Amino acid sequence: MLENATPLQYGDVEQAAARIDGAAHRTPVLTSRTADAAVDPAGGATLFFKCENFQRMGAFKFRGAYNAIARFTEEQRRAGVLTYSSGNHAQAIALSARLAGIRAAIIMPNDAPALKVAATREYGGEVIFYDRYTENREEIGRRLAQERGMTLIPPYDHPDVIAGQGTAAKELFDDVGELDVLLVPLGGGGLLAGSALSASALSPNCKVIGVEPEAGNDGQQSLRTGRIVDIGVPQTIADGAQTSHLGQHNFEVIRRLVDDIVTVSDDQLVATMKFFAERMKMVVEPTGCLAAAAALQGVYPVAGKKVGILISGGNVDLARFAKLVA
Amino acid sequence: MLENATPLQYGDVEQAAARIDGAAHRTPVLTSRTADAAVDPAGGATLFFKCENFQRMGAFKFRGAYNAIARFTEEQRRAGVLTYSSGNHAQAIALSARLAGIRAAIIMPNDAPALKVAATREYGGEVIFYDRYTENREEIGRRLAQERGMTLIPPYDHPDVIAGQGTAAKELFDDVGELDVLLVPLGGGGLLAGSALSASALSPNCKVIGVEPEAGNDGQQSLRTGRIVDIGVPQTIADGAQTSHLGQHNFEVIRRLVDDIVTVSDDQLVATMKFFAERMKMVVEPTGCLAAAAALQGVYPVAGKKVGILISGGNVDLARFAKLVA
């Protein structure tokens, strides 16, 4: 696999940063003395929250999708873009395609959050449903790409997507300098791989730690065994991390540059959602809480450390959000 | 009234900015293309949201309280600080007093949101309850100040409080330059008066517009009649704007520098809370939605304009928030 590919480098992230400049929001980095005190009562820790829930369409996914489409040839632009996604990448492709003036078709699971389906359509994307428990979205994607001549941009297993996602961590390091630890949510590994590329250049001594749901620890198993492990669709409230295996391009970067992968429970995600809403006044979707949960719930010890935390997104049905935090 | 006082000037805000530097958060300014399109489908408007819901203790009130206490003499510090507040100013005084290492006593209505009472006590403030429908908090405050020798810092009618609150708009202008319109929530008039001082120096052609709840339009009546009108305690979900009249120091600035005061309904506040949660991923308390509601609900036309919107705070019980937005 990937035998002939040039390994991704930080330079790819830098190029992506130039492409998305002006189109993507430069999201704020927030701090919270309450959070700092929660992880280190002695006062030695500082957490820096990179808020991709404030990114366009509500998640970091816009970065990778926009970067990938920005590299299309005229011929690719004429046929349009195709993807499959459990949600945020769908909106990201739909919005990026609209901005580029090209067509987009999105293969989505029929149990995707209503908010994400509606937003994808609102951005002008054509939605094609499938059953994620019985059908293979990658197969459907390949078939439709062939039939329609559209270019498939998968949600994570693509060099341009990974490079684009890495721009969030780049901005974080540019804003706050080097860090001791960077905690990153992990589904298919696009954000984690991209973040690791940025850390390797901008903060070489920073530990890069992936965080995934307990029920979906395929990433942890993969990193520890040295090969991509497929666990089937995990049952977790972190719908953005309901991936069954890492991408190949992602794993190549992750095994090279990521220090460890830890897991958190759904209960820990809910407690973190409440913390964000009550103390930091932010709406964060369950998947977006993964990295913060690892620090705030004591899964990964950060006392005395300068810690970056990537909040990946904020797209959660309000009714569901209300039920979870009330 | 105020015959011998020197009128407040922008220089007072500049001095306050120097005093709170390092203690207060410099809060982010967010933009939303969805909001821009909602107020001007032709694409001519840009809204800049100054997010004081991300301020320490969750509201702009920290700025004024910290500024006032920072000016205490040694004798004042020994006796401590006293205040009355429906909520956010209470927490602001309690936290600022703790940071200054002095005692704080807070007179609060017995129907204040539980979250605000708990947070005030958490910051080390002594809470003294009163009935806001039958008792006068200003009288109780004067009596306790005399008995205990503590310095009363009221929630809005105080030059140092007004100057401190003005630092939020100062930061907004410093970040985004001059504006056509600045929309500011209005209760007692601390934030509005302070913002008007900043606008007068940093963006002299900017229209400064106060926004208050329909049920509590004492500010509008006062500006239009030229004297402070007292309307009794208004019934509105905007608990931070349940003031019955403007402060004297506040009115002196407002009549001099504010262009108009408009009102929004509780329903419009709820619609705006939903918009913030769903599209901008933020928790904003009802009072914090006042200024945005005026723009987003079409109360104050902003098509074609560059508009500043002050979000005053995000302190709302999660259960109440969940009920309102779900």
How would you characterize the overall build of this protein?
Two copies of one chain form a homodimer. By secondary structure, chain A is of the alpha/beta class. Chain A has helices at residues 10-20, 33-39, 61-70, 74-79, 88-100, 114-122, 137-148, 159-176, 190-202, 218-225, 248-257, 266-279, 290-296, 318-325, and strands at residues 29-30, 46-51, 81-84, 104-109, 126-130, 151-152, 181-185, 207-213, 260-264, 306-311. Chain A has a six-stranded mixed sheet, with helices on both faces. The first copy, chain A, has a four-stranded parallel sheet with strand order 5-4-3-6, sandwiched between helices. In chain A, helix 3 crosses helix 8 (159-176) and helix 9 (190-202) runs parallel beside helix 11 (248-257). In chain A, 45% of the residues lie in helices and 15% in strands. Chain A has 14 helices and ten strands. The model of chain A has no long low-confidence stretch (mean pLDDT 95).
Indicate the topology.
Two copies of one chain form a homodimer.
Chain A: H1 10-20, E1 29-30, H2 33-39, E2 46-51, H3 61-70, H4 74-79, E3 81-84, H5 88-100, E4 104-109, H6 114-122, E5 126-130, H7 137-148, E6 151-152, H8 159-176, E7 181-185, H9 190-202, E8 207-213, H10 218-225, H11 248-257, E9 260-264, H12 266-279, H13 290-296, E10 306-311, H14 318-325
Parallel strand pairs in A: 2-10, 3-4, 3-6, 4-5, 7-8, 7-10, 8-9
Antiparallel strand pairs in A: 1-2
Helix pairs in contact in A: 1-3, 1-8, 3-5, 3-8, 5-6, 8-9, 9-11, 12-13
